Amino acid sequence: GAGVSQSPSNKVTEKGKDVELRCDPISGHTALYWYRQSLGQGLEFLIYFQGNSAPDKSGLPSDRFSAERTGGSVSTLTIQRTQQEDSAVYLCASSSGREDWTQYFGPGTRLLVL
Amino acid sequence: TQLLEQSPQFLSIQEGENLTVYCNSSSVFSSLQWYRQEPGEGPVLLVTVVTGGEVKKLKRLTFQFGDARKDSSLHITAAQPGDTGLYLCAVPHLGGGADGLTFGKGTHLIIQP
User: Fold this and answer.
1) pLDDT more than 90, % of chain B
2) Residue percentage of chain A with pLDDT more than 70
3) pLDDT band at A113, cuts 50/70/90?
4) Cα–Cα distance measured from residue A90 to residue A106, given in angstroms and rounded to the nearest whole number
5) CA distance B39 to chain A (A)
6) Of A106 and B40, which is predicted with more confidence?
């Protein structure tokens, strides 16, 4: 379909390993967002990309987290030296970035750090 | 302190009953959104409210934005099992519409047939 897609859908990793999560936004959407959803904290904003502007990284919980967006489309969220508290669902959303700022979410990547 | 407080956290009712869930804050917002999330999926936008006192209806769902734009409610009439899900309210993260969103922790709603 034409929605936001994320991969992998599930990821199990060992503590200390690095992981990469991928997001393919809706074609033509200039704005892309990453969120984390965990049982205790609910849905938390992580980072926001708008066109070619510098990303808003204000929500990243530590310097182990980074994200990039290549060519204004696909985005990768990288978590280095994963910790058990990183276990969560990582959700990506995109929007047209114009007057209608409705965000369309992907199904998420479920990350489990053992 | 959570910016958006949603209540109740959990609600389980029988099909056909009415219910109201709440989203409260001490801050004033330019707009507020309600989302529904089903297991294994991302949140889906239900409505955006922007004017104090605004009421919007979506079939059996009625959304209200408080006069002071600090709170909102969602009322469901004659609930159906298909209404089951996590209901989330959200506001713009840094005050602008195109920025990220700040979410409440949500109300887990179960409608029993």
Assistant:
1) 82
2) 96
3) very high
4) 9
5) 9
6) A106
Closest partner residue to B101 among A45, A107, A108, by Cβ?
A45
Measured CA distances, B56 to A13, A69, A105, B20, B21 (Å): 44, 36, 23, 14, 15
Task: Find the chain B residues whose C-beta atoms sit closer than 8 A to any C-beta of A.
Answer: 40-45, 48, 88, 90, 93-94, 97-106
Question: Is A39's pLDDT higher than 90?
Answer: no
Identity of the amino acid at B50: V
Suggest the residue from A103, A109, A110 to mutate for an interface test with chain B (most B CBs closer than 10 A).
A103
Contact B98 A101 (CB under 8 A): yes
Distance, in angstroms, between B68 CA and closest chain A CA? 23
Whole-angstrom Cα distance, residue B87 to residue B83?
A: 10
At B39, list the tokens. 């297991």
Scored b (16 or more CB within 10 A) or e, A74-102 reads: ebebebeebeeebbbbbbbbbbbbeeebe
Q: In what order do the strands lie in the sheet with A5-7?
A: A5-7, A19-24, A75-79, A65-69
SS3 at position A50: strand
**Residue B98: is its pLDDT beyond 70?**
no
Token readout for B11 is 């609600």
Cβ–Cβ below 8 Å for B100 and A108: no
Chain B residue numbers touching A56 (CB-CB < 8 A): 94, 99-100
